[in-house]
Write a structure and sequence with these properties.
- By secondary structure, the chain is of the alpha+beta class.
- It contains 14 helices and 18 strands.
- The strands form five sheets. It has a six-stranded mixed sheet with strand order 1-2-6-3-7-17. It has a four-stranded antiparallel sheet with strand order 11-13-9-14, with helices on one face. The chain has a three-stranded antiparallel sheet with strand order 4-5-18.
- The longest helix has 20 residues.
- The two termini are about 15 Å apart.
- The mean pLDDT is about 95.
- It binds ligand BES and manganese (II) ion.
Length: about 450
């Protein structure tokens, strides 16, 4: 084991240079013009895995390819098998003008490596690859068999990975899935995440006049779809921050005393959070802490709002339509299909007759919750403690990784969520970065993890 740790220590500069290569691919899964960049990124990753000493292949799908890389197996291996999951696709980098330097030209400033996809998720999955490299290159026997599954569609819903899991059930069957695609509060508080929120996505469009109208000639005699949409959406939330849709909270469980106690160890104060996020005041459901509000409580969010003239100067029109992109984050026990139905029914009931409502359904996923007391979870906590030299915390996270539910349903495996991101990493925002201490300690955590899981 010492050889592994020494290898990691000695090779950090090269690892960072390699991570920069990985980050140069504009693997934006949402944008069709980047299809080739995703394929090139997958091929680079496969070649890299082969150089490390893994058996790796690109698996084509109906969408972006999946990279599968495995440690070489002894015939009839009886070693336990673990899967490491990650994604090489990234969120769109726009708005580009807010980046200090271009998103796909990695830039190192102190210990921070800036690039789209650095923390979400290339840097995090690369940490695990480097840990395995250290085992393989030092000839240190791994106590388990490993399969890396690194997909290219996480940021757009993982539809084809789910098909792939079903088709490769027996090859991928494993004792647990290790996922580093979440966060930790700071370097002194490495974290095991035991819950994620679920999600439903949809778009609502209010159609008004058959075409944009002159607002002087006709305005006043027809409803304005943008105004109608604003009024409809404004009714969704009350002044105390609660969603006013009957039934929305029906299946929501209150946090337990145990969770509230663990939450109190969370080291970020409300004042720090307010500063980090640049808001004049925090806002959320009365009676819940910000930690609870953003992880254990459901939400209704407007992600995008569009209508009328968006160019320079003014244009006097009544727009023909107005549209909102919406997602609701869900918590354990809330069923996505049910919440989708009550929300859509409520919107229909509350839409005025002066506009026509159209709803387009998007993706959906259940929340995730797993016991932090299981043997694999305890092993993960020990690995975190050794690597970061601090007592780890247990937390819930507000983001979603829909595929973890399918790991459970299809492969029967729980996921260990061992995030290496920091709150100021700017995931999904301009100037995304990854901290190199997280990178290095993450590699050490991964190296220890395989020992702890098989102890
Ligand atoms: N890595 C995130 C998920 C995440 C981030 C979980 C931080 C917990 C803490 C992932 O890449 C992501 O952004 N997922 C999407 C899923 C959606 C597109 C279905 C999300 O949460 O918005
Ligand atoms: Mn993401």
């Amino acid at each position: 084991m010492q050889a592994v740790l020494d290898y990691l220590k000695q090779n950090q500069p090269r690892f960072v240079a390699e991570l920069c290569e990985y980050l140069r691919f504009a693997s934006v899964s949402a944008q069709p013009q980047h299809k080739k960049d995703l394929l090139a990124c997958a091929e680079w990753l496969v070649a890299h895995c082969q150089n490390i000493g893994l058996d790796a292949r690109v698996c084509a799908t109906a969408g972006h390819p999946i990279v599968v890389a495995k440690t070489k197996r002894a015939k009839n291996s009886t070693k336990p098998h673990y899967m490491v999951y990650g994604h090489y696709d990234v969120q769109p980098p726009e708005p580009l003008e807010l980046w200090t330097t271009p998103p796909f030209e990695p830039r190192l400033e102190g210990r921070n490596l800036f690039a789209r996809g650095s923390t979400d998720n290339k840097g995090q999955n690369f940490a695990h690859l480097k840990a395995v490299e250290a085992y393989l290159k030092t000839g240190t026997p791994l106590p388990c068999d490993l399969t890396f599954v690194i997909e290219g569609e996480e940021e757009v819903g993982s539809k084809n990975l789910s098909v792939f899991l079903k088709e490769n059930r027996s090859e991928l069957a494993c004792a647990a899935v290790v996922v580093s695609d979440t966060g930790m509060p700071d370097l002194a508080h490495p974290a095991l995440t035991y819950a994620l929120r679920g999600i439903i996505a949809f778009e609502i469009t209010l159609h008004g006049p058959a075409r944009d109208l002159h607002s002087g000639i006709f305005g006043g005699a027809v409803d304005n779809p943008a105004m109608a949409l604003a009024q409809l959406l404004a009714k969704v939330r009350d002044a105390r921050g609660f969603i006013d849709i009957p039934g929305f909270y029906e299946d929501v469980d209150a946090p337990s005393d145990y969770e509230r106690a663990e939450n109190r160890r969370f080291p970020i104060t409300d004042a720090q959070l307010k500063k980090l996020l640049g808001v004049p005041e925090l806002f959320g459901e009365h009676g819940f802490t910000p930690t609870e509000q953003r992880s254990a409580r459901p939400t209704f969010e407007i992600n995008g709002l569009t209508s009328g003239y968006q160019g320079e100067g003014s244009k006097t029109i009544v727009p023909a339509w107005a549209r909102a992109k919406i997602t609701c984050r869900l918590v354990p026990n809330q069923k996505p299909a049910h919440i989708r139905k009550i929300v859509c029914d409520w919107l229909k009931e509350n839409c005025p007759p002066t506009v026509r409502l159209e709803i387009t359904a998007g993706h959906g996923a259940e929340a995730y919750l797993v016991s932090p007391r299981s043997a694999p979870a305890q092993a993960a906590l020990r690995a975190l403690k050794t690597a970061f030299n601090c007592r780890p915390i247990l937390m819930r996270e507000g983001g979603s990784i829909p595929i973890v539910n399918e790991f459970k349903q299809i492969l029967g495996a729980d996921s260990l969520l061992l995030g290496l991101g920091l709150p100021d990493d700017n995931a999904h925002s301009p100037n995304e970065k990854f901290n190199l201490d997280c990178f290095e300690k993450g590699q050490r955590m991964s190296a220890h993890l395989w020992q702890e899981l098989t102890r």
